[in-house]
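Retro notes (design track)

What went well: tokenization of the new backbones is finally stable.
What didn't: we kept losing track of which sequence belonged to which structure.
Fix going forward: every design gets posted as structure first, then sequence, in one message. First example under the new rule, 176 residues:
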């Protein structure tokens, strides 16, 4: 008494082969998650770029970390920290003129990440380490580690070290 025919065994073998191929193809061609690294940092830098723009406009086009209102300071400080990697943080230029015509780097992430462009089977999973930067015109982009080494980091401070600014209180004299 035969329980399974030869055709049944062949059909089961072909089905198993197809399922294995589809599963392997999914693992190879599926886009892996890209929620960290440069993707996350670029998003945070866009927030910093907008905050710098608003702060500079309120200060006649100048941005100075020593005169930053607490609201802006908090936004930059929070955006300038990586919640996953405590050794990764934003460096921001402490004093500059904001200009939509300038490509000057005003902020840079200290750690390079390699997930943009996304490593995939098409580029043989090649990673391109890069630092995320904010430019004075408000754009966010990437620079290579060699370019990062060429920056004058003495002009930058860590976003978490931005001092608290206490605006001067106007003295009001009461004339009797």
């Amino acid at each position: 008494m035969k329980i399974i025919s030869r055709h049944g065994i062949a059909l089961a073998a072909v089905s198993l082969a197809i399922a294995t191929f589809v599963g392997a193809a999914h693992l190879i061609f599926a886009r892996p998650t890209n929620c960290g690294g440069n993707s996350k940092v670029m998003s945070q830098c866009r927030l910093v770029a907008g905050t710098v723009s608003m702060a500079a406009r309120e200060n006649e086009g100048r941005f100075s970390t020593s005169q930053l209102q607490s609201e802006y300071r908090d936004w930059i400080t929070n955006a300038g920290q990586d919640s996953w990697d405590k050794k990764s943080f934003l460096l921001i230029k402490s004093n500059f003129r904001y200009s939509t015509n300038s490509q000057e780097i005003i902020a840079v992430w200290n750690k390079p990440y390699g997930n943009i462009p996304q490593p995939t089977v098409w580029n043989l999973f090649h990673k391109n380490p890069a630092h995320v930067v904010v430019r004075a015109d408000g754009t966010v982009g990437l620079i290579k580690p060699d370019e990062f080494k060429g920056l004058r980091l003495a002009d930058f401070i860590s976003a978490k070290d931005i001092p608290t600014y206490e605006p001067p209180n106007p003295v009001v004299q009461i004339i009797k």
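Added context from the reviewer: The helical segments are 6-29, 38-57, 70-79, 145-149.
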